[in-house]
Design a protein that fits this description.
alpha/beta; seven-stranded parallel β-sheet; 52% helix; globular; Sc_DH/Rdtase_CS
Length: 263
Amino acid sequence: MSSIENKVVVITGASGGLGAHLAMDVAKRKGIPVLLARREEQLKIVQDTIFQETGVKAPYYALDVSKQENVQGVFQRVFIDLKEIHILVNNAGFGVFEEFAEADWQTVESMFSTNVLGLMACTQAVLPYMLQKGSGHIINIASQAGKISTPKSSVYAATKHAVLGFSNGLRLEVAHKGVVVTTVNPGPIATDFFTLADQSGNYVKNIQKFMLQPSHVSKKVVEAMEHPVRELNLPWWMNAGSTLYQLMPRVVETLGGKSFRQK
């Protein structure tokens, strides 16, 4: 029996990409994935696919995480309908790769509203319940970009640095209260994230052979649901580079040179 069987697992950004894979893998382990995203018609497609393949009915709710009132209302409905939330996966997010000097300020604000404030709002919506119950698991999808920033990802990396900082502080706050906080730091994943982030297609072309498959990342995240860890870093060699960067930033930036300018 899976340790997430019959557990309610709320997943933001579940209309496609990694979020949809996570929902399917949770359902295959007889968990109850709750699908949250802005695109309601896409959520219905994911729900139907999950039911056809697993027989699990995955409830879905339209949610824009950047709107705090919307977050509060949707999570109240989830609690009313399902009574509890065992695991929250903060997966919603987006990026736009461009030089900061050319960045549109509305896009900058939107990235922070979704990637950081939206994640925090969803966490705050479930945390009091988890603390009262004395159990729960919050999984924040961050990025290797939160450990080492590169040209044209300064704003996106800043949001992921913020996610890591928030997660690390929160982990210490709840460490002795039964709630676990896991951060997931993947490298580039082959999803439609890059449709917006890399509109030229140059970055994907340059790093395609190194991109992670969402099915692989999803498998590792679900394993972390069943056996919680502090951090999940993928792939290992990219995380080794991030660790080296913390020790010798100037050396890594110098040696990185051209490879850092893939965008």
